[in-house]
Amino acid sequence: MDKLIVEGGRPLRGEVRVSGAKNAALPLMAAAILAGGPLKLTNLPDLGDLKTMGRLLTFMGGQVDLGQGARREALLDLTQLNKPEAPHELVKTMRASALVLGPLLARVGRARVSLPGGCAIGVRPIDLHLKALRAMGAVFDLSGGDIVARAPEGGLKGAEIRFETVTVTGTENLMMAAVLAKGRTVIANAAREPEVVDTGRALLAMGAKIEGLGTGTIIIEGVDFLSGATYEVTPDRIEAGTLLAAVALAGGEITLRGFPHEALATVVAKLKETGLIITPIGPDLVAKAPEVLEAADITTQPYPGFPTDMQAQFMAMMTPARGTSVITETIFENRFMHVGELRRLGADIALEGRTAVVRGVSQLSGAPMTASDLRASASLVLASLAAKGLSQIHRVYHLDRGYEGLDRKLVALGASIQRVKA
Ligand code: EPZ
Questions:
Q1: N or C terminus of the chain: which is more exposed, having fewer CB within 10 Å?
Q2: Neighbours of 363 (CB within 10 A)
Q3: pLDDT at position 26, please?
Q4: Residue in 75, 81, 119, 148 annotated catalytic
């Protein structure tokens, strides 16, 4: 397992391009199951989770080429799919594998998908996915930890669905089930995340009939066939937000190329409250750190609220800020694994249930830390940029699942980060 050795106190300067979004690329790859021809995805990032999804689609009988280099072009051809299964050894490393359930039921009427286990940030059930698919006529059995799913004779039927909790992959799974179903499906209390919109737009490019993308109500008219298509993956708003938090903590001034302005509007407004000087310039954005960050409060919410995937990074920003920040996590029940590690740098953080109270300290000091999940590992890297002396971050594979070389990008901007191969 690789580790990162970071020497803090180095301001960031220069420019960096925002990569394609992991949480758009994953459902887009699953959507290839629905296509009657090759699906070409451009601006794909080089991420561990996408390699896992590629292995899963290949296991099913697909031809998958994830491309090479930066902003890679992937070609996915699932027309010869012959094994509608997602085995445990693949699902256990990436619970987003559940995203193949809807497409498989729509395409071949059956699926065997290992029930995704929990992860560090919570139990993360998929009960809402299954309940909604049942409304479309699907039947599920649990056998040996696998969900054995069948669509009714004649295929899934359109249905009126209301999610009692906003679920991002639940919305994506149901959209992908509904596009080939018989009749109309209405998804109420649907997720509005940009990555959900991206998935819907790719389905439209394949010939689907969808209205209401980006709103809380998505209406889908089933069609008989979806073709292949070419689709560009939207920029990763969470990587972009993470880079803004990096310059806020390290100091300096950076330019982000291909910045998702609309998708990050709430986060940008909040970061301005902390004193970060943010100037949009066409498709790009310049961020300049203030001398001292000011504390601000956040409560995570479904889009367009402050994203839970930026909570750990924002908390890192608040540890050396002036004042006290109240951070409330409403989406996941255990997304404070980074708190214990940040305390090792001298951060003053008190936990009360789903709320963390961060009292800014004047100086963080470097220390060894251990990553527990994807966004927590990012927050540890960010905090070490502001800490005096050397820090080490162990179990960096968490970082590589969701960031395209975050350490390389930060080094290119002037950070002192050494990756030590285990
Ligand atoms: C997606 O996960 C993202 N992953 C997560 O990003 C993100 O944190 C999350 O949405 C919230 O924005 C991908 O898109 C691949 P949910 P997802 O279903 O879809 C509960 C990252 O760091 N729930 O919106 O799994 C659930 O437990 C990852 O990139 C049910 O109870 O999240 C959670 O408390 C982490 N039953 C809440 O709803 C269900 O059937 C929201 O979960 C489904 C969800």
A1: C
A2: 11
A3: 97
A4: 119
Supply the pLDDT for residue 205.
98
> What is the C-alpha separation between 23 and 41, in angstroms, rounded?
14
Do 225 and 36 meet the contact criterion of CB atoms below 8 Å apart?
Answer: yes
pLDDT at 71: 83
Which pair of tokens denotes residue 103? 């497409």
In the chain the domains, ranked by start, together with CATH numbers, are 2-19+235-421 (3.65.10.10), 22-232 (3.65.10.10)
Compute the distance between CA of residue 25 and CA of residue 17 in angstroms, rounded to an integer.
Answer: 17
Query: What's the N-to-C CA distance of the chain in angstroms?
Result: 5
Q: Is 161 assigned a catalytic role?
A: no
Q: How much is the pLDDT for 388? A: 98
Ligand 1 residue neighbourhood (C-beta within 6 Å): 22-23, 26, 96, 122, 124-129, 165, 167-170, 195, 308-309, 331-332, 374-375, 402
pLDDT at 95: 84
> Whole-model pTM above 0.85?
yes
Reported as a single tens digit per residue, the pLDDT across 151-172 is 999 999 999 999 999 999 999 9
Q: Is residue 174 within 8 Å of residue 180, measured between CB atoms?
A: no
Which residue is it, tokens 């989770």? Answer: 49
Rg of the chain on CA atoms, in Å: 21
Answer yes or no: are the C-beta atoms of 19 and 239 closer than 8 Å.
yes
Intervals of the chain under pLDDT 50: none
Q: Which residue has its alpha carbon closest to ligand 1 atom 41?
A: 167
